[in-house]
């Protein structure tokens, strides 16, 4: 007889599928029979018009929907259809609310018809949300069986069904259409997405691989163009990893830039290294669009952790005044990039190294300065920062698993071994050390002013976001490339660079692994398995440099033809 | 035989006095023979020119020193003299480094002579610093006997003597002259200033009373015009209390506005309710001057906790465009003030009630809107916020007392009773609750938009900063009026309003105390003892509203003739 949690999980899993209209149901071939389900494969189920709509970037969609050329309803329906397909092919959704979305879309169309102007800058734009957001009349499980039928594990109240996270309110006010919530690993603390409800979320470009995590449902969904832009969260790489693994742009803003208020979370209240919320999507302009739209809502008046920092055009201009446009004769100055290919703890695999080379060579060719980034050792940053995840000795996570009795996925089973909570003194000492490490890094960054020749310190760091293009199941053994950014609270934008080519990205047989940890990652790279996978990098900037980093990422993306 | 700590403390106390040139030594009459040592009393020891210089506000001093009209040396010498007198009359200094200050002043004069322009906006301005700042070649004891001869209780290294706090560097770069460090209560966790080195810091306007704390040395020093402006820190009222008790302006900026980097602290690393650094001085323009000068140094590049928020003229203009100048026909709109006379936990004493009335009536007379402030109960804010002070079970504080074996002053002896540290889970739960309380308060604040009639929510809250004009020794039993501002991380500016008049501020015999705690405060008010004491209020604004709140405080101060 199945256990109670298994029955509950199965019922929920089936309910998600049942929310997909019959006419949108398809057969999902076994992964190994169809590794790549993007492009031509998924097109077979779509009309040319649906393909046109869903392969338009968010910024281009709103050009149509805010001017009445495309109806919100048609756009929404196309994305609902494609999202339904994406879920069947990758297990990327936790919640489907297409009919509510279509109701919203119709009312937006009615608004436009009546006023001849859009409701807001996101009028008619479908936006997907990681399953931490609370949306009216939609459940939030965060992948926990124990949360099914509850409000964050507690009994529902009269208010629970209508409660919405602050950002949801703001997105609606700006005219967005919300239509689905996307899969996460239970606990949120994994770079793979797996839980006992929907199972494993696969990478649509190569179903040998993970879609990433913890915003893995967003990654797979947008990677398959089932959504033009969506919101994830990031405490150790959870926006950037799925963005990178799926060939998307994604930004980890610094803490306090965008509203997290009223969202579910793991280990809520741990405030040494904060989880942040941010968008991932198919274009930098799309990310900028949604961030600007949110900042126009003045979230600092509604979320006590958000800073009063409106969108700063001047930070963008600082970049554009230097670069002009790619290929312009108008380039009047140089940017300076620090290149940080390996952190010396775990080396990147061959395709990631090639991606670094592609970007560095292109930027040099364009006349920019590229210097080696030689920061204070990342080891201390990582070990100190990760302590914040163990402050409560796994108390929060274990108590949620206890609600249902469901088992932990192997990816997060390390929580089993945690026990001892940190004390107030120990947490304070960690905070002091974190501040010192930030200060040292900051001083190093300032010191690069003397080597750039631009009169400024390095503008952005070019660095991997993971040692591999995407993780193989249960093989995500090193998070150092993404996590240091969280510990230092820097701004980082992921840029897609290339795809693995098994003929080019050969195993480097001469590589001498640094240690066992490095060897594990080295051994996990297999050109046959990885062929075709997206390869991405991140561009890291200082704290609260969202405008500048998006501008640089857009420039770099265009430069390398993405 | 005296104990070792007594010998050490005595030696240090004497060394401070010995740093005062012989010709500046005076006899200090017993407190009860000369309650008020300000004004005429201290003038007897000063030349008219010294009085002129030292009774000029910081903003007016730099008009002279940055244009070569007054030499930095003359200005510095005058303040050194008056500071020396102030210390002898109130015990307000921990460190005296007049000769280093005069060397700095001379080099600034030489700079001006050579370049015919000032070094920076603070050229030649003496600035005093609370004894948490590290200054080259100067000790930092923070009032702890155990820190004498050490660097924050640790053995000194070769770098210790030259180490300076980040803000010290920035102040020097802006042209300031540092000349003394001011007294604090050991632990910093008291609204009175007392320690085993310098004893008790008295209120110069009325030596029955405390100068306040924990930046009490700053309060007494500037209250006696021994410094035009100085920097304190505030985690529960420690800038505002001494500013208010000494008839000064003082601002508690929100966290992350000004650089705390490299300063000594108590319970460093507790990051639920952050201690912040900010100025107190004799004019709002003086506070603005030093804050702007610091922000021009871009402290966010040198302190990882500082936000990239340059001075925002537009926030000041929002106020001036509404108010015009006091008495102007140019007043084009109204400000709206929320008045919060009593928090319902402990009621303010009669002179504080009169101060509220003075301000409210004047603002109404000027045509502004004043509404009653009816926020969510402050009790929960206070009890939750103060938990952050007990996170480490007194571990930090007790370990410092253990270094020397010195006893705790009664004002901070509550640390004796602490033992149990908070756990990671408990701290996280506190942080969640604090965020919820902030959100509730924010929602209430937003909701006032419907009652102000100005189209905006309330601009500032008028409220006491303590239930009494100043505390009597060992009678500071309630901190609720200052501490809620820290817990919510709001911006607050203290404004001097009036002085106690024993003929007017009678005991309200009909008052029915709320409870024992309220009765204790009520009973502590005695018109005979309080006669002449400064009475101040605070104007509280939202988070990170420093520009706006200074503008409002300046307007209100002028309106009531301060």
TrEMBL record, chains A, B:
Uppermost EC category: hydrolase
Keywords (A to Z) from UniProt: Hydrolase
Instruction: Tell me the residue numbers annotated for binding substrate.
Output: 188, 214, 235-238
Q: Name one GO molecular function term.
A: amidase activity
Q: Which reaction does it catalyse?
A: a monocarboxylic acid amide + H2O = a monocarboxylate + NH4(+)
| Entry EC no(s) | 3.5.1.4
The UniProt entry annotates the active site at: 130 (charge relay system), 214 (charge relay system), 238 (acyl-ester intermediate)
Q: Return the InterPro entries for the record.
A: Amidase_CS (IPR020556), Amidase_dom (IPR023631), AS_sf (IPR036928)
Q: Which Pfam families does the UniProt record give?
A: Amidase (PF01425)
Top-rank taxon of the source lineage equals Eukaryota
Give the Amidase domain ranges.
Answer: 74-550
User: What family is this protein classified in?
Assistant: Belongs to the amidase family.
The protein in question is named amidase
Species: Lophiostoma macrostomum CBS 122681
Upper taxonomic classification of the species?
Eukaryota, Fungi, Dikarya, Ascomycota, Pezizomycotina
């Amino acid at each position: 007889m199945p256990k109670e949690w298994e029955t509950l999980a199965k019922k929920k899993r089936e309910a998600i599928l049942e929310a997909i209209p019959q006419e949108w149901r398809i057969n999902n071939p076994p992964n190994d029979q169809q590794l790549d389900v993007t492009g031509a494969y998924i097109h077979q189920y779509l009309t040319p018009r649906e393909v046109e709509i869903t392969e338009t970037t968010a910024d281009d969609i709103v050009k149509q929907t805010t001017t009445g050329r495309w109806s919100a309803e048609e756009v929404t329906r196309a994305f609902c259809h494609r999202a339904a397909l994406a879920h069947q092919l990758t297990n990327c959704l936790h919640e489907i609310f297409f009919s509510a979305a279509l109701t919203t879309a119709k009312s937006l169309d009615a608004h436009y018809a009546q006023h001849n102007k859009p409701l807001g800058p996101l009028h008619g734009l479908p936006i997907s949300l990681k399953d931490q957001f609370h949306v009216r009349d939609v459940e939030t499980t965060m992948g926990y069986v124990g949360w099914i039928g509850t409000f964050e594990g507690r009994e529902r109240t009269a208010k629970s069904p209508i409660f919405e996270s602050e950002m949801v309110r703001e997105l609606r006010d700006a005219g967005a259409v919300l239509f689905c919530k996307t899969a996460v690993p239970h606990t949120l603390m994994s770079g793979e997405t797996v839980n006992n409800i929907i199972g494993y979320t696969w990478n649509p470009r190569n179903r040998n691989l993970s879609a990433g995590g913890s915003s893995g449902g967003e990654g797979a969904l947008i990677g398959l163009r089932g959504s033009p832009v969506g919101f994830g969260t990031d405490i150790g790489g959870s926006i950037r990893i799925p963005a990178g693994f799926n060939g998307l742009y994604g930004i980890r803003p610094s803490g306090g830039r965008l509203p997290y208020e009223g969202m579910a979370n793991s280990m809520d209240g741990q405030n040494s290294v904060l989880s942040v919320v941010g968008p991932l999507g198919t274009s930098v302009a799309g990310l900028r669009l949604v961030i600007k739209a949110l900042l126009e809502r003045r979230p600092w008046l509604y979320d006590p952790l958000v800073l009063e920092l409106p969108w700063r055009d001047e930070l963008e201009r600082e970049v554009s005044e230097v670069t002009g446009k790619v290929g312009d004769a108008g380039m009047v100055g140089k940017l300076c990039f620090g290149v940080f290919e390996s952190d010396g703890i775990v080396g990147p695999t061959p395709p990631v190294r090639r991606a670094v080379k592609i970007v560095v060579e292109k930027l040099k060719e364009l006349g920019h300065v590229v210097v080696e980034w030689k920061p204070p050792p990342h080891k201390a940053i990582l070990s100190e920062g990760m302590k914040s995840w163990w402050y409560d000795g796994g108390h929060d996570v274990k108590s949620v698993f206890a609600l249902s009795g469901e088992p932990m996925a192997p990816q997060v089973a390390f929580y089993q071994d945690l026990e001892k909570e940190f004390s107030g003194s120990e947490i304070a000492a960690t905070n002091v050390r974190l501040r010192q490490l930030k200060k040292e890094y900051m001083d190093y960054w300032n010191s690069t002013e003397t080597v750039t020749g631009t009169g400024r310190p390095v503008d952005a760091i070019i660095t991997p976001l993971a040692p591999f293009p995407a993780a193989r199941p249960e093989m995500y053994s090193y998070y150092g490339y993404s996590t240091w950014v969280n510990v230092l609270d820097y701004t980082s934008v992921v840029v897609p660079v290339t795809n693995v080519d098994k003929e080019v990205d050969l195993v480097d047989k001469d590589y001498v692994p640094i240690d066992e940890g490095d060897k594990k990652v080295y051994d996990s790279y297999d050109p046959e398995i990885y062929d075709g996978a997206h390869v991405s990098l991140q561009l890291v900037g200082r704290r609260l440099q969202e405008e500048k980093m998006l501008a640089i990422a857009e420039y770099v993306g265009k430069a390398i033809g993405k």
